[in-house]
Give the backbone structure.
Amino acid sequence: MLLTRDGKEVPFKVEIADTPEKREIGLMYRKDLAADRGMIFIFARESPQSFWMKNTPIPLDMLFISADKKVVGIVEQAAPFTLDPRGVATPSQFVLEINGGLSKRYQIRAGDSVRFESIPTQSARE
């Protein structure tokens, strides 16, 4: 998966969470996450998405991505082990979780394009 901004690409190798069970577990219980890794949550359709950090010990950035593969919002540095819902106002079909602080480091912003490689974006099951 690649995020692109002004011709610059930022690649991430991602695990895919495309079923309710995989989306529920997400990155819980992980003690670390390499800087070039993440998890992409795939939903059947675009809608408002909300996430929490229950049992997640590492801070994460959450990038909310529309069906047309544009970043529509970012939650930065989501605090570990909280049940506070996190989301953005704009509906999204995909959510990419990466290490907290990487969106700032790479200057990822709303409006940036996303390109999926080898990710079955139409396979999400309710």
Q: What stands out?
A: The chain has a mean pLDDT of 92. Residues 5 and 62 are 17 Å apart (CA to CA).
